Amino acid sequence: MDVELRKSRNGVLKFLLKDVTPAFANSIRRTILQGVPTMAIDEVEVEKNDSVMSDEILAHRLGQTPLVTPEGYLLPSECDCLEGRCPNCSVDLSLQVEGPSVIRGEDLDPSDPEASPVEGNSPIVRLGEGQKLEFNAIARLGFGEDHANWQPAIVSYKYMSVIDIDQDARDDWGECVESCPEDILAIKNDEMVVTDIEKCTMCEACLEACPDAIDVGEDSSQFIFRVESTGTMPPERLVSRAIEILKGKCEEFTEQMERF
Q1: Domain at 2-34+154-225, CATH from 1.10.3720.10, 3.40.50.2000, 3.10.20.30, 3.30.1360.10
Q2: How far apart are CA 76 and CA 89, in angstroms?
Q3: Known binding site: residues?
Q4: Which candidate, 228, 13, 232, places its Cα nearest to that of 142?
């Protein structure tokens, strides 16, 4: 297995994963989406709500507000408190405000400043003159497989494309080059070449334009990953945690098999 970094900027990680099976690549994707514990608002206790937004919709919007996930917190199922409300496994985010104003993520007051909303400017609800909103929200660690609130990123991958060109098939490559919407085909020394194979989307436009000279396929042992974090944790940390979790599951499976 080999990993080559392609991009790491503004919460987006792009890398090339080589010499692995499709099943292994998909295991990484699924673990990032569903198996890495992250912090999200799980419970909202509303004391007063004069806004036009109902308590249920307000709670849903708060749950969908990404929070930074600090290190050191326990899953509620692992905590001795058994209620999921102690400082070891939860964070309180309170609010008490009167309108007119637009309530934003930065207005929430977390018991742990490190577990604050990722985007402080993100709007939650608008309050009119004299309207009041008071609530206490409880954030806990959870998994994306249980609810989308805890999904930490958008993760996708694609096979590495393979474009075979028969250089003896024709003398004029203009039509073939112009057909590519990604502009990755070019003419060099009277031959057509691929300038950046990783940008190929396998749309097969070039194949339709020049079926006599081009064949488009895929390499199922190489995968181009793209991980876009919600901001709850850096994408590099997400991938590392996913690998650790997969390794732990494999070790546990091996131990269980050795008992037979």
Answers
A1: 3.30.1360.10
A2: 6
A3: 200, 203, 206
A4: 232
157 three-state secondary structure: strand
Closest listed residue to residue 206, CA positions, set 236, 157, 234, 166 = 166
Give pLDDT tens digits for 24-34: 999 999 999 99
Confidence of residue 72 (pLDDT cuts 50, 70, 90): very high
Q: What is the mean pLDDT of the chain?
A: 94
- The binding site for [3Fe-4S] cluster comprises 200, 203, 206
pLDDT at residue number 260: 77
Taking the CA atoms of 232, 236, 240 and 243 in sequence, report the sign of the dihedral they define: positive
Distance CA 16, CA 66 (A): 27
Q: How many CA atoms lie within 13 A of 213 on its CB side?
A: 19
* For the chain, domain boundaries: 2-34+154-225, 39-145
Residues 6+ apart with CB under 8 A from 26: none
Structure confidence at residue 170 (pLDDT) = 87
Return all residues near 172 (Cβ < 8 A) that are at least 6 apart.
none
Could you tell me where the beta strands, DSSP code E, fall in 89-165?
Answer: 90-98, 101-104, 109-110, 123-127, 132-142, 153-165
Question: If you ran DSSP here, which 8-state letter would residue 258 be given?
Answer: H
Cα(23)–Cα(246) distance, integer angstroms: 13
Q: How confident is the model at residue 258 (pLDDT cuts 50, 70, 90)?
A: confident
pTM of the model: 0.87
Span 167-186, pLDDT tens digits: 998 888 999 999 999 999 99
